[in-house]
Give the backbone structure.
Amino acid sequence: MSACTHHGETLMLDIFGELNQNLKADWEQHMENCPGCRAEKDAIARTLEVTKTALDAPVLGEFEAAAMRNRVIRELTAAPKNLLERKRPFFFSRAFIPVLTSACVLLIALGFMASKFLTGPEINMGTQLAASQEHYQSDDIDIINNMDLLRDLDALDKLSKVIDQSQPSSRPNNVQGNNGHGKKPILS
């Protein structure tokens, strides 16, 4: 029988002793019920045991051990220098922080100044609108105050029409349309 494919990672963690306690109880219960996983675990454990016993650790001489130790130390001490000496773009460097801060302060200051200039005309537009409405209202008040004068002018106009219609025309003949030659006169 073969092991369950979805338990491969759990099987490896159990063999190497890295399975956490929460999963261990569930895994042990699964191992009791699944002969495939049990057989796979035993086979891998035997293979690891044979490998450990069959292969001895290589014995290094004094010169090789010193060379390996010096190489490890050199790599460890060189790594931080390489990280610090590495060229970074300007916007990742520490010199960029004051530049970014200054730019932000400048943008905020310009924003406040621009908002004052942009809101200024709106206030002036409001006062201009109020002034024009006040002007129209004063014109309306003048018309209402002069209403009697307008009524008098209207009455005079009607009176002049009545008088013109009631009086016979005192115009000369050539103005009435007959100049004696049968032609209408040219009025200027």
The chain has seven helices and no strands. The helical segments are 8-15, 21-33, 35-54, 62-85, 96-145, 147-166, 173-176. The longest helix spans residues 96-145. Confidence is low (pLDDT under 50) at residues 173-179.
